[in-house]
Write a structure and sequence with these properties.
Blueprint: H1 6-18, H2 27-39, E1 43-45, E2 53-58, E3 61-71, H3 98-114, E4 120-128, H4 136-140, E5 149-158, E6 165-168, E7 171-174, E8 176-185, E9 189-190, H5 200-218, E10 225-234, E11 240-241, E12 244-253, H6 256-277, E13 281-287, E14 292-294, H7 296-308, E15 312-315, E16 334-340, H8 359-375
Parallel strand pairs: 3-4, 3-5, 5-16, 6-15
Antiparallel strand pairs: 1-2, 2-4, 6-16, 7-14, 8-12, 8-13, 9-11, 10-12
Helix pairs in contact: 1-3, 3-8, 5-6, 7-8
The structure holds nickel (II) ion.
Nickel (II) ion (NI) binds at residues 96, 98, 156.
Length: 380
């Protein structure tokens, strides 16, 4: 019987799927993964947070160290997938497939451990909490145990490809994610006397319009970026002009230079609109994780490994979604691949599912890719 068996991994996936835990609360998930790793005799370390862990696979032969990372957190969504192993926790769901990542990477860890006698180097297997809130990666990626890693590997489920297909692409494959929140400080007044106050709702409307020109009028049509206002608030009744108005949203960019350009243009528009209407506007700008940028040599390795495993290789689709795997790639190369998992629904949908047939090949693929990185020239 192979180590681990396919049924053991499927059982792990079903358990994790039915027990989803959101960011920083992945205690049961961590305990489950820890038990499986320790039972196999794999050394397990804390990852710098209360949840999550780093497993250390030491090969018997000398060689470099590589990092293989899975995220493990779920989402605050009520599941409506109809699966027999649906979430037993109300309002919590693995709707992004992080249960699949954890089970597949656990499988890879067990496979690598089983072949440790011929393994040239060390694999640090990272089970990272809190990816969905962009909080886990920035802590775990700085862990001293990972300093020796020459590169980092990770994957994500993808409903757009069937089981058995891997998506790989060079360059920026996930976006830098920044957030903004504006508070417009007008002067509240009776609705019948607008001239006696400063209406922040008019300023808010002008901002929503003007911010749209950042991408459409100041960025190259060939660049990839967006500015979305997603939340507006002002006032609470029909005959009062309120004193403040709020709007918030997100900025997504793939190119680091575009990221700077959008932020600069954004601040210029906000202060210009504020000056035009005579209202101070507070700007809160929160920098999230940068773009995930795939290393070309590692992409080549990810492709050749997939083909050697009998998998189909496709081109990874464009997205302006975010992913804190970029925290590991601040000064190390890495590759972030898409694992075809089929299913009818997109990620973060209450009906999201994965094709269980994708699990075992994904585990084998991650193990083979980690091994290929250990065996590749150090210059990678
Ligand atoms: Ni995800």
């Amino acid at each position: 019987m192979p180590i681990p068996s396919e049924s053991m991994l499927l059982e792990t996936l079903r358990f994790l799927h039915s027990h989803p835990e959101t960011a920083f609360e992945e205690h049961e998930t961590t305990a489950h993964l820890r038990a499986a790793l320790e039972e196999a005799g794999i050394a397990v370390h804390p990852c710098g947070l209360d949840t999550g862990l780093i497993a250390q696979i030491d090969g018997a032969l000398p060689g470099p160290t590589v990092g293989l990372r899975a995220d493990i957190d779920a989402l605050p969504i009520q599941e409506d997938s109809g699966l027999a192993c649906s979430s037993v926790i109300p309002g919590r769901m693995h709707a992004c497939g992080h249960d699949f990542h954890a089970a597949a990477v656990l499988g890879a860890a067990l496979m690598l451990h089983a072949q440790r006698d011929t393994l040239p180097g060390r694999v640090m297997v990272i089970f990272q909490p809190a990816e969905e809130v962009d909080g886990g990666g920035r802590i775990v990626a700085r862990h001293p145990l990972l300093h020796e890693c020459k590169c980092f590997l990770a994957g994500h489920t993808y409903p757009g490809f069937p089981a058995g297909t891997v998506g790989v692409r060079e360059g920026a494959v996930m976006a830098a994610v920044d957030r903004f929140r504006l508070v417009i400080r007008g002067v509240g007044v009776h609705a019948a006397h607008p001239h006696a106050g400063i209406d922040p709702i008019v300023v808010q409307a002008a901002l929503v319009q003007s911010l749209q020109t950042i991408v459409s009028r100041t960025m190259s049509p060939f660049s990839h970026s967006l500015v979305s206002v997603t939340h507006v608030e002002a006032g609470n009744t029909w005959n009062v002009i309120p004193s403040t108005a709020m709007l918030e949203g997100t900025v997504r960019t793939l190119d680091p230079a575009d990221r700077e350009r959008v932020e600069k243009q954004f601040c210029q528009i906000v202060s210009g609109v504020g000056a035009a209407y005579g209202t101070p506007i507070d700007i809160e700008w929160t920098r999230g994780s940068p773009a995930v940028i795939n290393d070309p040599a590692l992409c080549e390795l990810a492709r050749s490994t997939a083909l050697a495993q009998g998998l189909t290789v496709d081109r990874q689709d464009d997205t302006l979604g975010g992913e804190d795997f970029s925290q590991y790639l601040m000064d190390k190369p890495g590759v972030f691949v898409r694992i075809g998992t089929g299913g009818q629904r997109p990620a973060h949908h209450p009906g999201f599912t994965v094709d269980p047939a994708a699990l075992y090949p994904a585990a084998r693929y991650f193990a083979a890719l980690a091994r290929a990185c250990l065996e590749a020239p150090l210059s990678l």
